[in-house]
Write a structure and sequence with these properties.
mainly alpha; rod-shaped; 77% helix
Length: 94
């Protein structure tokens, strides 16, 4: 129903106005998609970081902060290359 009214409105507009509106709408959609992708990447990195820190705390001999940061970066790169979805628990994939 809403689609019908939008289609009707589009048919009544001139081509230039319609193209301007579609360009604006396209930009907004791309922005939303980019923000969602960025949020997923941030969630992935946060999960990897928390896991590495937790594992370091459980070690008998903990690594220093510099090595821990390098380990986190390595894990993050490996997860990205391997398709990070397979490295996350299913609860984070939603």
């Amino acid at each position: 129903m809403q689609l019908d009214s939008v289609t009707s409105d589009m048919q009544q507009q001139d081509r230039l106005t319609l193209l301007r509106q579609l360009k604006h709408t396209d930009r907004r959609i791309k922005q939303v998609v980019l923000r969602r992708r960025l949020q997923k990447e941030m969630d992935r990195y946060t999960f990897i970081r928390r896991t590495a820190i937790s594992e370091n705390e459980e070690r008998v001999v903990q690594v220093d902060e510099k090595r821990l940061e390098c380990e986190i970066a390595t894990r993050s790169d490996e997860a990205k290359e391997a398709g990070w979805r397979s490295s996350l628990p299913t609860s984070m994939l939603a």
